[in-house]
Amino acid sequence: MAPDVSVIVVTWNARDLVDACIERVLGEGGAGVDLELIVVDNASTDGTAEHVRDTWPTVRVVETGRNGGMAAGNNAGMLDASGRAFLLLNSDCFLHEGALRTMLDRLDAEPTGTVAAVAPALENVDGTPQRSVRGFPSTWRYATEFFYVRRIAPRSRMFNAFYGAGVDLDRAQRIEWATGACLLVPRDAVDAVGLMDEAYFMYGEEVDWLRRMSRTGRTVAWEPSAVATHVGGGSARTQWGTLYQRQLANHVRYMARCEGASAARRTRRVLALSLRLRALAWRVVRRDRASAFASGARTIGEIDLATIEPAVVPAWPALQRSDADSR
Q1: pLDDT above 70 (res 325)
Q2: Other C-beta atoms lying within 10 Å of the C-beta of residue 130
Q3: Torsional class of 7: left (φ above 0), alpha (ψ -120 to 50), beta (otherwise)
């Protein structure tokens, strides 16, 4: 019989972290759940795939042969999985006791076809809450973020909806979306919209995916009684400038994909102006940051919406069957 949950962990040079992640899934974090664990390795050069095979014989390892990013890795895992739900789990995210059981119970308690994902509360390594609740991007919400307006009124829904202001994080409820370090996604949600868009590579793939699901009437179920620790930020700290440029381009890509060309053009103007102002402000304090912001303004300004590549979404078996049934 198929397991209840297929846990999918995407790795890229994650040998130092992956053992703790796997240990929690197979131990207290995944206790009481019929699960399979799949590690998808994106062409690591530190021996991650070999290490997992040697250390964790019950774990299935899928090697993609390339570093296609988080979306491609998660897609490969879901295509290989048999569970009725998928736990997409970052390799630097560690489940607390009973977390997966609690998330699965929440999924099963909700009406079928209404859940895009179940999101747990995330904590930093020091135990402090990690902000993971989000509102779907819009030009206004990007403006409140990039012009620092949200810092004036961080609890205001009007000025900080992008970061989930007004959401009582201690109460189980429905939210717009949550960051993708740990998400329990029912198979029927993937059946409805297909897999992730691999054109994002990194940053933006989960919000695009969850936005597509929202258009089918699904929302994210916030479950604060399930908790995971998320280390986060390793690559971002060491490759900040490069990754920041990628993230900026994906903001425009998202708007073009999900909100249309007019919204993308407005967002591009807002981001470019805010980045020029940031570059001026940071010139005295940190020239490297100022240079990154100036480069970001150029990156944004040079984006031709007509040349944004089409979505890269591999075929999903359920959608193929639906297409066949309609003919």
Answers
A1: no
A2: 16
A3: beta
Dist CA 55 CA 90 (whole Å): 19
DSSP per-residue codes, 77-132: HHHH--SSEEEEEETTEEEPTTHHHHHHHHHHHSPTT-EEEEEEEEE-TTS-EE--
Nearest to 100 by CA among 112, 109, 89: 89
Contact criterion met (CB below 8 Å) for 102 and 31: no
Q: Say what the pLDDT of residue 236 is.
A: 47
- What three-state secondary structure class fits 5? strand
Across the chain, the runs of DSSP E, i.e. the strands, are: 5-11, 35-41, 60-63, 85-90, 93-95, 115-123, 129-130, 133-134, 173-175, 177-178, 182-186, 219-230
Q: What are the backbone angles phi and psi of residue 155, rounded to the nearest 5°? A: -100, 5
Neighbour-count burial for 118-129, b at 16+ CB within 10 Å, e otherwise: bbbbbbeeeeee
Average pLDDT over residues 104-125: 98
Query: Which helix (H) or strand (E) is 49 found in, with range?
Result: helix 48-55
For the entire predicted model, the pTM comes to: 0.93
Q: What is the mean pLDDT of the chain?
A: 92
307/259 Cα distance (integer angstroms): 17
Residue 91: left (phi > 0), alpha (psi -120 to 50), or beta? alpha
Q: In 164-297, which ranges are E strands?
A: 173-175, 177-178, 182-186, 219-230
Encoded amino acid at 43, one letter:
A
Closest CA to 113 of 217, 211, 212, 193: 217
Per DSSP, 213 falls in state: H
| Contact (CB, 8 A) for 8 and 86 | yes
∠222-27-40 over CA atoms, to 5°? 75
